[in-house]
Amino acid sequence: MGQESIRRYEFNGFWIDVAGRRLRSQDGAAIDLPVRAFDVLLYLIDHRGEDISKERLMSAAWPNTVVEENNLNQAITALRHALADQRNQPRYIMTVPGRGYRFVATVTEVPEASPTESPSSPSTLALTSPAFATEQAASGGPVPALSGPLDTARSDKASHARPASSTRSVIGALKRLRRGVWLTLAALIVAGVATYSYLHRQPVLTDKDTILLVDFVNTTGESVFDGATLKQGLAVQLQQSPYLTLFSDEQVQQTLRLMQKSPDEPVTREVGREIALRQGLKAVIAGTIAKFDRNYSLTLEAINSQTGETIALTLVETEGKDQVLKALSQAATQLREKLGESLSLIRRFDKPLEQVMTSKLEAFQAYAAGFELSSGGAGWNEAIPLYERAVEIDPDFAAAYHMLALMHDWARRPRLAAEYAQKAYVLKDRLGEREQLPITSRYHRLVTGDMNKFIETLKLQKRLFPRERGGSMGLAQAYILIGRHDQALAEAREAIRLHPDYLGAHALLGQALLRLDRFAEAKAVFTQAFQQTPVDRGFNSTLYQIAFIQGDSVGMRQQIDRIDKSDRQLAEYSLLESRLAALGGQSRKAQELSRRAIDLSRRSDAEEVTAQYLTEEALLSALFRDCPRARAQAEDGLSLEHGRASLPRAALALAMCGETEQVKLLMNELARRYPADTLINELQLPLIRAVMELQHGKAAEAIELLQPAARFEAAAAFWPQYIRGQAFLKLNKGAEAAAEFQKILDHRGEAPLSVLYPLTQLGVARAAAMVGDKAKSQKAYEDFLAVWKEADSDLSPLLEAEAHR
Predict the structure, then answer these.
(1) What is the pLDDT of residue 377?
(2) Of 144, 432, 497, 589, which has the maximum CB count within 10 A?
(3) Would you tell me how many other CB atoms lie within 10 Å of the CB of residue 654?
């Protein structure tokens, strides 16, 4: 019997709802399974009793996709957990060594219901309909089963159809009622039944379902409704709900690629249903706008992705183009109710689109076009003029300011990003909670720098909207910034669990793994992510660093060959190669490559990035004890920009060169401009003060000043550990110094290309000699010289090491 004619499979207290794509327990309770795990289970059951190879299973569950065996292992693990099965004593899934897997339980097939069978299967989805008309029931006429568009007046009082048995008994009673008083009583009975049915209705969707929005159909002929305008407006309205989860644009584009289609292909109803079926989504939401004289009609329809049937539908009419966004808000609210969301949630999380976004249609059209360009991660630069157009039309458009802050943050323009984040924050109170929280978190990251408030806001976002990745994504980023890499790893995994195909979450996972020195795992994550997108998300540069750590020169060259040759990427890779040269003591080569990066950065009008490059160059010169060059480079950088990146670097370089008065001025400026910035006040300023004290021979004071930095030092690229180690050497405390230097050697992933890593070997050599361990001291010198074998011959660290050879 073909799968299309099977309603359910039953086995040992479980059953599978084939149409609904659900594994259920005996009492009908749904058991959550990842989409691919369900595909594996269904394939094993369809071929029960057979030995199914791993390759065959992967081909069936991941068609047209290159996956690793680990993906299948995870799916099998998920199935065994859901079924309470054991590998060594299997009741359902047996591992056949060297061959694959076999489903061993006895399975009963339940065919599709016949036309006379009661349509009460758990997989059946009932169409939401208005309350029954009292006068029709009272006259004994038929009760309509609505499946077409609902008029506005009826949609305001919509509810689900009452049970068939209750309807028949009420209608039978009504036929026997003749007098007016009894007709009134009958009307009350029907109203009561309808109310009971509404209050006890089964929701069309549950809070575990994900829905997909397809492109709006515009029959008005007016271009303002073309493109993403209405679709994005509907998405904004539905995303206010913590009950509904939308399949993201990034996930749509990824699925289209797997379907061997262009990621820019229009998502029609047919394409949307195919995406939904592939991804196990329950419903597709389609919208249509039509015009009749001056009136506009908006229809929203929820479609069962399995059967193609309409499961909820709402229609709103309005007069005039300027009222369309308001009508869209009304239609979305009605649809949320019909899909099963409680009225209490709707009341709390439902602000009209003109309040959450803008009342100006042209401003929202520009915003929607910008969002469509930037949502895939590639068109952010092209999206900026569209968002700027949106705020030009409506200067109170908070969401557009927020997107401008995000775009300029991606473009590494922190000053502009902070300005727009500030504007969005000032206007945020008019928005709903879902929109306020990302604006607030980005404000604290880009403007105040208060990491405690940044994390607190993200935790609230995660708690209120647990099915969205934003909270976990933000927390993963926050924990990486402050050096809590274990927590970052957990949050990145949670974001991937919520949205497995979102590559940004995989990038954060890879970064956390890298910082935890789990290089092979990080490489696997970035390699797989790189294969899934043509968009650079930092995958190349990270893979370059991992290849360097692993001594893979071919892999390093491969990553350089993959870059897109834009000024920005050429500058970034010139800087990477500069750091690599510096790490090997090739100071002149490093300066040359750094200068190339600076010139490319200037050419792309990225002044803030250029200032950062110049002050990093100053810091390198100070480390190599070339203070005249360090002073000139710091001055050049600060002439371009006094910002979060350039000020601390310049101050630290000048502190290492003993420029006390100038450093004090820069420190005062940092404290004045960023009074709430956690990392500046608790990490960078203590570090600068400690270096100044060390330069004045006050090693004990330097160690004391570094105490506040201890909790952030895993995010400080080795500087606190290195300076503390140098201070202990000044105090002739070799064991304590060695412990600080060992922290650096044990955590290479925190800063793979830091020049402090090889210089730490000199510290280890001096500390070992201090405690009388000559063998360890000699080995440390030799290890340093092996890294600096091609170093410039006049550098002080090299001369020191050669003197002890």
Answers:
(1) 57
(2) 432
(3) 29
458 forms bridges with which residues in the sheet?
A: none
* DSSP-derived secondary structure letter, 625: T
Alpha helices by DSSP H, listed for 746-804, are 756-770, 774-787, 796-803
Who has greater pLDDT, 425 or 169?
425
Return the DSSP state at 52: B
Query: Of the candidates 182, 180, 238, which has an alpha carbon nearest to the alpha carbon of residue 211?
Result: 238
> Do 712 and 482 touch, CB atoms closer than 8 A?
yes
Place of tokens 């509810």: 159
SS (H, E, C) 82-127: HHCCCCCCCCCEEEECCCEEEECCCCEEEECCCCCCCCCCCCCCCC
Do residues 728 and 699 lie in contact, with contact meaning Cβ atoms separated by under 8 Å? yes
Distance of CA 741 to the CA centre of its chain: 36
Cα distance between residue 744 and residue 620, in whole Å: 18
Cβ atoms of 484 and 714 closer than 8 Å: yes
β partners of residue 159: 129
Count the Cβ atoms, other than its own, within 10 Å of residue 158: 20
Which of 120-134, 188-202, 442-456, 560-574 is least confident?
120-134
Q: Which amino acid is at 745?
A: L
pLDDT of residue 532: 66
Instruction: Return the minimum-mean-pLDDT range out of 171-175, 270-274, 417-421, 452-456.
Output: 171-175
Per the CB < 8 A criterion, the answer to whether 434 and 350 are in contact is: no
Q: Phi-psi bin for 327: left (phi > 0), alpha (psi -120 to 50), beta?
A: alpha
**Strand extents, DSSP E, 161-267:** 210-213, 217-218, 245-246
- pLDDT(630) > 90: yes
Pull the structure tokens for residue 300.
């929203």
Six-digit token string for 434? 């879902």
Distance CA 149, CA 127 (A): 12
Give the C-alpha separation, 750 to 18, whole Å.
48
Contact 574, 593 (CB under 8 A): yes
**Residue 531, helix vs strand vs coil:** helix
- For the chain, the farthest-separated pair of C-alpha atoms sits apart, in whole angstroms, at 116
Cβ neighbours of residue 582 under 8 Å, at least 6 residues apart? 590, 620, 755
Contacts 24+ apart (CB under 8 A), 414-418: 414/446, 414/608, 414/643, 414/644, 414/645, 415/608, 415/641, 415/643, 417/446, 418/446, 418/447
Residue found by looking up tokens 């008994």 in the block: 169
User: Could you tell me the two tokens for 498?
Assistant: 């919520």
pLDDT digits (tens, 9 = 90+) for 344-365: 777 777 777 777 788 898 998 8
Q: Is the pLDDT of residue 158 over 60?
A: no
Tokens of 803: 């003197």
How buried is 118 (Cβ within 10 angstroms: 0-12 exposed, 13-18 middle, 19+ buried)?
A: exposed
Return the CA Rg of the chain.
Answer: 32
Sequence-ordered list of residues with C-beta below 8 angstroms from that of 148, at least 6 positions apart, any chain = 313
Which pLDDT score, from 0 to 100, does residue 690 have? 96
Cα three-residue angle 587-592-598, rounded to 5 degrees = 120
Most confident of 180-194, 341-355, 525-539, 691-705: 691-705
Q: Note the pLDDT tens digit of each residue in 39-60.
A: 899 899 888 888 888 888 888 8
Residue with tokens 């955590």: 747
pLDDT surpasses 70 at 184: no
Mean residue pLDDT of the chain comes to 82
pLDDT in tens, 696-714: 999 999 999 999 899 999 9
**Calpha distance 695→657 (Å, rounded):** 8
118 Ramachandran zone, left/alpha/beta (phi>0; psi -120 to 50)? beta
User: Residue 5's pLDDT band (boundaries 50, 70, 90)?
Assistant: low
Q: Collapse the DSSP code of 228 into the 3-class scheme (helix H, G, I; strand E, B; otherwise coil) and give the result.
A: coil
